[in-house]
Amino acid sequence: MTVQQVLEDLGFEVESVVLGKVTVTDEVGSDEMEKISEELVDKGFELLKKNDKALLEQIKVQLIDYLKYLEDTEDPDNVSVFLEEKMQYNYSYLSKYFSDYGDVTIEKYIINLKIERVKELLTYDELTLSEIAWKLNYSSVQYLSNQFKKITGETVSSFRSHSDERGRQSLDAV
């Protein structure tokens, strides 16, 4: 809504606003594009001028959705199937694209998302580690614990004992 409002305030007729893409009825010149960019930055948004970066952001959003899907589904599809269905691209293409422009593989990005979610769930202190492992589709508590230590540098119990003193990253900041 904010993006649409910015464009309308600048005199553009907006046809559609979808994540990462806005369609307007008229051509947009470079001066107008600069003004749009300034207005969006003032509102906390970033104008993505290259399709490369826009696609990268769309993949990240879908991977965050995949994490939610993991938590809500008893027998979830692999990330490759999920991304292909959601984005209508071949997974190998998306994976290469993500690695080229995101400086990390999709698999490592998902691991980072999962670890941030584990931290969040540990901070709430409502679920056991076994429940968290099951919820995030880990094969075992031991595997989750090992991955947690590898990524964060500390054990789950150490994190849990003073998690209220730490800041976590939001998932979209990973």
State the gist of this model.
The chain has nine helices and two strands. The chain folds into two domains: 2-49, no CATH class; 51-174, Arc Repressor Mutant, subunit A (Orthogonal Bundle). It is mainly α and 174 residues long.
Overview of the molecule:
The chain is mainly α and 174 residues long. The chain folds into 2 domains: 2-49, no CATH class; 51-174, Homeodomain-like (Arc Repressor Mutant, subunit A), CATH 1.10.10. Helix content is 62%, strand content 5%. The protein is built from 9 helices and 2 strands. Strands 1-2 form a two-stranded antiparallel ribbon. A hairpin with a 2-residue loop joins strand 1 (14-18) and strand 2. Helix 3 (51-72) packs across helix 4 and helix 6 (106-124) packs across helix 8. The longest helix has 22 residues, at 51-72. It is elongated. The two termini are 24 Å apart.
